[in-house]
Design brief:
By secondary structure, the chain is mostly helical. It is built from 16 helices and 4 strands. The strands form 2 sheets. Strands 1-2 form a two-stranded antiparallel sheet. The chain has a two-stranded antiparallel sheet with strand order 3-4. Helix 2 packs across helix 3 and helix 5 packs antiparallel against helix 6. The longest helix has 27 residues. The two termini are 43 Å apart.
């Protein structure tokens, strides 16, 4: 017994809602232009759809160590930032009595999220991508863990420490275990005295380091960390300062907010498009590098229709010229 046209349409609608509409090259070309805020939202949805599919798949949860487990969780945090960003693209209006404010977009908040996505991308690279050996990763990751745990302990006031002695001791044990894990690596025993001292002095206080070819450590600052992403020269120069300038309560951010809504020109729309391009860039680099670490997720990507693959990998490819993911 066959389906009638009504039930067939319902079935097709269900399939489309489950797997998503097939993207055409024309669809992608329209999204790339970002002529409207709706284009921004639709492009973000293409990216977020793939992130969501990875999160929901067994491949996206597969892990053989606590570090890989945290790596998968990192993907979820990037997905969350992207979702929050999209929700803000709708803008916010306000009504009181007969007075009404049409929705506006506070682009300073968009750039704050963009900065957070950038920072997450940089730390992801430091912890999961840049280490060339398992022991390099063990050292930088335990520095990262010790820093976070130490900061949480430091935030507890004396009263909280007295009332939660078991928790405090467990946290301290975890911190101590981080140091033991670092010390037990063969790499640590082979490091020169200066590098060992740098690790000891940083333990519990700092974590943003990258191993150089000679196994010495260099400090990484967000201001110039874009050089580690292997993007084309000058592409991200000054981007972190730009985010900070717009996200912090600076005089520039104040006057830009003032001028954004003059006459009929809506600068908030243009700034929102720029912020969207930034977030898409970071999410594109992130997911491509994530796929390099997880071949099963790369296989998921390769099963997508070509225009969708292009939309997801386009920014990464344009900025690096790898021509691997498009």
């Amino acid at each position: 017994m066959g389906l009638d046209n009504k039930h067939l349409k319902l079935l097709l609608d269900m399939i489309e809602s489950r797997f998503g509409k097939q993207l055409t090259l024309e669809d992608v070309q329209k999204l790339i232009k970002m002529e409207t805020i709706d284009d921004c939202k639709q492009y973000m949805k293409v990216m977020l759809d793939f992130y969501f599919d990875v999160i929901m798949s067994p491949s996206g949860r597969k892990a053989s160590s606590y570090i890989e487990d945290d790596r998968n969780l990192w993907l979820q945090t990037m997905f969350s930032k992207g979702c929050q960003f999209v929700s803000l693209l709708d803008g916010v209006g306000y009504s009181k009595g007969i007075s009404h404010l049409n929705p506006i977009i506070d682009f300073s908040i968009l750039f704050t999220i963009a900065r957070s996505a950038y920072e997450s991308l940089i730390v992801f690279e430091l912890l999961f991508v840049l280490p060339k050996t398992e022991e390099q990763q063990t050292i930088v990751y335990n520095l990262f863990m010790a820093h976070g745990l130490s900061e949480r302990l430091k935030d507890l006031d004396e009263n909280a420490k007295r009332n939660n002695p078991t928790r405090v001791q467990e946290e301290q044990n975890d911190i101590d275990n981080c140091w033991k894990t670092i010390e037990d690596t063969e790499l640590y025993s082979e490091l020169d005295p200066q590098t060992k001292a740098k690790i000891k002095n940083a333990f519990g206080l700092r974590y943003r380091f990258a191993f150089k070819d000679d196994n010495t450590l260099e400090v990484v600052k967000f201001e110039n960390a874009h050089t580690l992403l292997k993007v084309k020269e000058n592409l991200f120069d000054g981007i972190y300062s730009f985010f900070s300038l717009h996200g912090h309560p600076s005089y520039l951010s104040l006057i830009q907010f003032r001028d954004a809504f003059k006459d009929k020109y809506r600068a908030d729309m243009d700034m929102a498009k720029h912020a969207t391009q930034c977030v898409l860039s970071f999410m594109s680099i992130f997911i491509v590098d994530y796929m390099k670490l997880n071949s099963e997720v790369k296989a998921m990507y390769e099963r997508l229709e070509e225009p969708r693959r292009f939309a997801i990998g386009m920014y990464e490819d344009a900025m690096r010229g790898e021509k691997k993911f498009k």
